[in-house]
């Protein structure tokens, strides 16, 4: 499916560079500890494999998931670092963990002595959910060469930081009962990375990675997820006319209402009724009436309106000079950012922005594609001309690919970035066009063959921009490895 098709209704933009930046920020707050990023629940709804790939650049100690099957998905995707499954294991799961090389979490002292694979022992210091109680004297009997790590979970580090010292004291006492301190000790979640003055071996960031606040007095993360949908219908209504099921909202005056193609089947919570707003053209408009399965309705105000069918409504994210954060949207719904993100439905195409490197090239659809309209996505913006496509990375145009009059099939192709090359992939595969204008003159396009240093130069002075010659390749080279597309 092309990017254009994926954007016909509703989608989620996931900025992996912002994700990496958030990871570095929380790592610095945690004293430079190695990371054990929590990518459970499909990386909080944003795509565990893609997120895991992006975080590989930071060389984390491992990854945290909730279920064994989440871990298996990562193993099958090629991730080889330790995978810690945070749902307590049972004795019957031992062979499954062995088969897939998984780290178990154990919260039973009897099972701890029998488990013959590396495991992490959870200590309950106040969460009251899982883990061996911090004052359980059976901890003195836990003596196993397979005890790799020990941890506890901070239950209120975000909004009640005064609870943290008491939990930490209980945790240290429990470790004292073990006799020997395991080599991997972890306590810090997102908020805990700032609240704790003590450094630990690894930190377990979660919501901060994905752009959610982890405390009103703590740093604001970069925006990672933006949810957008298109206006699919517009109608003028007389005063007193009802909108949506139940007729709970009636137009207080003559007004124009837009229908936007996203609903509760996509994760837009019904509880935002009467509270939520969307951004269209950088302006806020209220959502009116009940949220339906596939649509929401937006009051545009009295006619005339500048909004048209096909325009993009931003549900979460930036548009113009305004922004609706995931935390603001969660407040409208009476919930938390975690629920909003993990509830994003499977009908919403995830579009990954700013991918880099070979794996991203093969597996992401992720760099901005410009069409005939000016468009801005997240922090990446561009202006495009008719029949022209620009490839961007980190907001900088590094090359331009244009469709020739001889081959209009190049229109609408997807673009990715590999190192310093703009790479153009035909949707059905088969060939690549690589163009790099860096260092070239204003009227010069440099064509690279398979990424080699040999190049041809086509002077484009006095020629229309859509008539630039294209090089048709059957392979491309990244870091010395050749990938064939035929």
Please describe what this structure looks like.
The chain is elongated. The protein has 486 residues and is α/β, with parallel strands linked by helices. Mean pLDDT is 77; it is low at 355-486. The chain is 19% helix and 29% strand. The strands form 8 sheets. Strands 3, 4, 5, 6, 7, 8 and 9 form a 7-stranded parallel sheet that branches. The protein has a 6-stranded antiparallel barrel with strand order 11-14-17-16-15-18. A 5-stranded antiparallel sheet has the order 25-26-27-28-29.
- Total number of strands: 31
Percent of residues in helices: 10-25%
The chain-level mean pLDDT equals: 77
Which residue ranges are poorly predicted, with pLDDT under 50 across at least 5 consecutive positions? 355-486
Structural category = alpha/beta
Number of H- or I-type helical stretches = 12
What oligomeric state is this?
single chain
Largest sheet features: 7 strands, parallel
Beta-strand proportion: 25-35%
Tell me, what's the shape?
elongated
Provide the gyration radius in Å: 26 Å
Euclidean distance between termini CA atoms? 19 Å
